[in-house]
């Protein structure tokens, strides 16, 4: 085996033993920070609006998302392969609950993504984000808003080091980044994406 191939394998092993641990630790720290912020927001909302009810859920099942599509299209055609599969954004799903009908209105869905430290592994976090955004756009198919916000950080979000930011722009339907995009632009429902190299 050539020295170059041995070097490439060693670089991957080094990443898996060092780089991935760093990414996991760093991501976990930022995810916990986001959950703390959402819990503080929930507490503030409950204090400010004592006559309203709020609920924070960790996950939404894909079957619930498919039901939203069926309701919108007046169909029964749409269904996930597995009924137990779900999406679980880092900050969860924050709902406003109608006390009379018990209907729940999502008002905030939040994610934290860290991307970087090794060029061979660029894009993984963003690709996972893209999967969730597809699901959430379908979940909000009958709404005029998408109250979804993602905070991205890491070396890959420095335009001088990586073009990963273009993948994020694609997920955002090319709407402006680092800006709140709550409402639809015609039929486009981009969501809000904030990115920088430094940690949030």
Automatic annotation (TrEMBL):
InterPro entries, A to Z: Restrct_endonuc-II-like, Restrct_endonuc_II_EcoRI, Restrct_endonuc_II_EcoRI/MunI
Biological process according to GO: DNA restriction-modification system
GO molecular function (one): DNA binding
Keywords: Hydrolase
EC number(s) stated in the UniProt entry for this protein: 3.1.21.4
Name of protein: Type-2 restriction enzyme RsrI
Protein species of origin: Metamycoplasma alkalescens
Biological classification of the source: Bacteria, Bacillati, Mycoplasmatota, Mycoplasmoidales, Metamycoplasmataceae
């Amino acid at each position: 085996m050539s020295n170059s191939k041995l070097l490439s394998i060693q670089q991957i092993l080094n990443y898996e033993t060092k780089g991935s641990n760093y990414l996991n630790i760093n991501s976990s720290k930022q995810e916990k920070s986001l959950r703390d912020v959402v819990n503080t927001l929930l507490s503030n909302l409950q204090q400010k609006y004592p006559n309203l009810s709020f609920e924070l859920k960790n996950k939404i099942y894909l079957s619930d998302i498919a039901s939203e599509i069926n309701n919108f299209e007046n169909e029964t055609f749409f269904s996930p392969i597995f009924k137990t599969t779900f999406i679980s954004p880092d900050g969860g799903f924050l709902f406003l609950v109608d006390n009379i009908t018990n209907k729940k209105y999502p008002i905030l869905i939040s994610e934290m993504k860290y991307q970087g430290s090794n060029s061979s592994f660029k894009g993984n976090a963003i690709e996972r984000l893209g999967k969730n955004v597809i699901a959430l756009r379908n979940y909000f198919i009958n709404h005029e808003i998408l109250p979804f916000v993602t905070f991205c950080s890491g070396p890959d979000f420095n335009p001088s080091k990586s073009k990963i930011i273009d993948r994020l722009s694609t997920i955002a339907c090319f709407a402006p980044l680092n800006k709140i995009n709550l409402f639809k632009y015609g039929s486009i429902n981009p969501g809000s994406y904030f990115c920088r190299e430094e940690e949030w």
